[in-house]
Design brief:
Helix 9 (187-199) links the parallel strand 5 (179-183) and strand 6 (205-209). The chain has a six-stranded parallel β-sheet, with helices on both faces. Strands 7-8-9 form a three-stranded antiparallel β-sheet. Helix 11 runs antiparallel to helix 13. 41% of the residues are buried. Helix content is 37%, strand content 15%. The protein is globular, with a radius of gyration of 21 Å. By secondary structure, the protein is of the alpha/beta class. Bound molecules: adenosine monophosphate. Adenosine monophosphate (AMP) binds at residues 49-50, 56-57, 59-60, 182-183, 185-186, 209, 211-212, 219-222.
Length: 390
């Protein structure tokens, strides 16, 4: 029996692939074996990570295994995966020179134990050279219009989303998953991934699992190990501030925008011609040539209501002396990730708005977010949104 066939019987240590060649051989074998056994191609669930795994990552492995998201309020369309692939790759292109690339926690042995216990089958753990310079120089990067400069996270970390979009594009092309799983913990990243998968017809569907938290509400993160005992004690104030904001907005009873359903224009229709012209302008002129009112319009000052909510979030976090700065409190359209000034501007399903915070505690930067309006973890698109469907 081949190594891949043995994996399907369960309980085995995952196969570790260090090269693209090894990974693609395993991926092809997976299809061949499932085809032989069940007369169809393999359903591969994929969970990309940077390692230093915690229960947040592992919940996504569980989602892939069960074909069920860890949020009962979402309607979920995936079937349980035949094989679960994960990747452990600390992606250098998403780190700025001033960031923690060299010190980012690396815990491969314990990660492997956790992945084995959760039933992961294949781990892709390439070197940076394998991913970026097999035929150097590496020159192709993926960017999303309007995200790098105009989302607060993009502005705070120039080049970050370009690095994420590039590595996710590469990983989805390499692994060819049926379904991929990302965590809402990185809310704008989820929107970026979903958008690029749809725009570039990347393989598989994109699913978002809800944020897994410690008992006191702190969002789990590989970087939480950087926190001192005092910082760790103070850190959950971020989630408390977000929850208070959710409650304020709920009590104020904001009328949400009608949900706008995205429709695919038919070829040669007036809408198609208009879209083609828009795309041509966009690719020639970039964001600067966007029509007013489009998704890429620069953000306006927050409405008085959202401004008061943001101010209160800042105050609640700043009440913990361990925090040195609240870098941003932002409201984004749950569908596009673009900053919005008013709840009614959301174009997402159920008017979903992502309320995100980045705050510095010592030298550690903590991120968290919640979804306002709609289902608790609904980032404004149907669960299991197809990236590419045959
Ligand atoms: P990372 O290793 O930080 O790049 O994260 C890999 C994946 O795990 C990403 O899709 C993250 O959004 C997701 N993730 C990280 N932390 C959590 C968490 N606390 N809950 C759910 N998903 C998470």
């Amino acid at each position: 029996m081949s190594a891949v066939a043995r994996l399907l019987t369960g309980g085995q240590t995952p196969i570790v692939c260090r090269t693209l060649k090894e990974l693609s051989a395993v991926r092809r074998a997976a299809d061949a074996i499932v085809l032989q056994q069940q007369g169809r191609l393999a359903r591969v669930g994929f969970v990309p990570t940077m390692g230093a795994l915690h229960s947040g990552h592992l919940s996504l492995i569980e989602c892939a295994k069960q074909g069920k998201l860890n949020d009962p309020s979402t309607t979920f369309v995936a079937k349980p995966a035949d094989l679960i692939f994960s990747s452990i790759f600390v992606n250098p292109t998403q780190f700025a020179p001033t960031e923690d690339l060299s010190t980012y926690p690396r815990t491969f042995e314990t990660d492997m134990e956790a992945l084995t216990a959760r039933g992961c089958h294949v781990v892709f753990a390439p070197t940076a050279a394998e991913m970026y310079t097999p035929h150097s120089p590496f020159r192709s990067f993926v960017t999303l219009t309007g995200i790098d400069a105009s989302s607060p996270e993009g502005a705070a970390r120039p080049g970050f989303f370009r690095g994420v979009a590039t590595v996710v594009t590469k990983l989805l092309n390499i692994v060819q998953p049926t379904d991929s799983y990302f965590g809402q913990k990185d809310g704008i990243q989820c929107i970026v991934v979903r958008t690029l998968a749809r725009d570039l017809n990347l393989p598989g569907r994109i699913h978002i699992g809800s944020t897994v938290r410690e008992a006191d509400g702190l969002a789990m993160s590989s970087r939480n190990v950087y926190l001192s005992a005092a910082q760790r004690k103070a850190a959950p104030v971020i989630y408390r501030a977000l929850e208070e904001a959710r409650e304020t907005i709920r009590q104020q009873g904001i009328t949400i925008a009608g949900s706008r359903t995205e429709s695919l224009s038919t070829a040669n229709s007036p809408a198609d011609a208009e879209r083609a012209a828009q795309l041509a302008a966009q690719s020639n002129g970039g964001a600067a040539s966007q029509a007013p009112g489009s998704a890429l319009e620069p953000s306006k000052p927050l409405s008085p209501q959202l401004s008061a909510v943001a101010q209160r979030v800042r105050e609640v976090i700043a009440s913990e002396a361990e925090f040195s700065a609240v870098q941003y409190v932002s409201f984004s359209d749950g569908a596009t990730g673009q900053p919005i000034a008013d709840m009614r501007e959301s174009t997402a399903r159920h008017g979903a708005v992502l309320l995100s915070v980045a705050a510095k505690i010592g030298s550690t930067r903590l991120l968290d977010n919640i979804v306002l309006q709609g289902a608790p973890n609904d980032l404004g698109w149907p669960a299991g949104c197809p990236a590419y469907e045959l």
